[in-house]
Specification:
Blueprint (H helix, E strand, L loop, with lengths): L1 H5 L8 E5 L4 H12 L3 E6 L2 H15 L3 E5 L5 H14 L5 E4 L14 H29 L2 E6 L12 H21 L4 E8 L6 H5 L17 H9 L8 E4 L3 H10 L1 H20 L1
Parallel strand pairs: 1-2, 1-4, 2-3, 4-5, 5-6, 6-7
Helix pairs in contact: 2-3, 2-8, 5-6, 9-10
Protein name: 2-hydroxycyclohexanecarboxyl-CoA dehydrogenase
GO cellular component, one term: membrane
Keywords: Oxidoreductase
Length: 277
């Protein structure tokens, strides 16, 4: 089984499907896969942006690239896209659930619609896609499923309760899925980045109150993250935490949760107070 999984260490002519491919981490993952010779499929709602990205991927890879507009909140639309991919491209070798949405405000100020959207896009769509594609990968005897979690899914951060909850649930889902498919040669990798240099924070937190709590050096390059992800595919690696030291912070929080809550609240309150001065 490990021998079959090793085949994914080279992406040449491998079929890679990426959700959230129209920008941010998903776009960086798509372009890096293309550089490594993959047949890239990108999915998101923005059809025109997707077509442009697919063209860039085709130029980089020298191989076909495809774009399928997709509303991840619609299970029937997901089924339709998977059927098209199977008929027009072939079986999927690697699935990357990179689509995500967020609204970073206190729970008491959050609407039910925002809560539902984050749950549907960040969690339910990834679970549904993983379930459907895992069946196919188990039949073919190898594959990789990469779910993009978040640092806040492991360490609680104020003003991100619902977003963090969806990511924590995705991490836990991935841990159990990993056990269920491992004997079939399927890798399940979770990626838990801290703040990334994309438009996500600007959209989720237009006033930039949340982003102001993080120093500039802590922001991660999506291109470097994409390379790290692809360098981990085809191995038994189960998780990527970036920056690396956040794995230790997560462990400390589990061991000393009370102290962790106090520290996190103190840091955020202190920085808020400094902004008001």
């Amino acid at each position: 089984m490990m021998r079959r999984l090793k085949a994914l260490r080279s992406l040449k002519n491998k079929v890679v499907l990426i959700t959230g491919g129209s920008g941010g981490i998903g776009q960086a993952i798509a372009l890096e896969a293309a550089r490594r010779g993959a047949i890239v499929i990108v999915c998101a709602r923005q059809a025109a942006v997707l077509r442009q990205l697919a063209t860039r991927c085709m130029i980089l890879s020298g191989r076909p690239a495809f774009s399928f507009p997709l509303d991840l909140t619609d299970p029937d639309a997901i089924d339709d896209v998977l059927t098209k991919v199977r008929h027009e491209v072939g079986e999927i070798d690697v699935l990357i659930n990179a689509a995500g949405t967020g609204e970073l405000v206190e729970v008491t100020k959050q609407s039910q619609a925002a809560m539902a959207k984050m749950t549907n896009v960040n969690l339910l769509a990834a679970m549904y896609l993983s379930r459907s594609v895992a069946k196919q990968m188990m039949d073919q005897g190898f594959g990789a499923i990469i779910n993009i979690g978040a640092l806040s899914g492991k360490i609680p951060v104020p003003s991100s309760a619902v977003y963090s909850a969806t990511k924590a649930a995705l991490i836990h889902f991935s841990n159990i899925l990993r056990m269920e498919v491992a004997d079939f040669g399927v890798q399940v990798l979770t990626v838990n980045p801290g703040p990334v240099q994309t438009n996500f924070l600007a959209q989720a937190d237009p006033d930039q109150h949340f982003a102001a709590h993080f120093p500039a050096w802590m922001f991660i390059s999506p291109e470097k993250l994409a390379k790290q992800i692809w360098d981990s595919v085809g191995y038994k690696r189960r998780e990527i935490n970036v920056p690396a030291y956040t794995a230790q912070l997560s462990w400390l929080y589990q061991v000393f949760p009370g102290l962790g809550d106090w520290t996190i609240k103190k840091v955020f309150d202190y920085q808020q107070n400094r902004q008001q001065l």
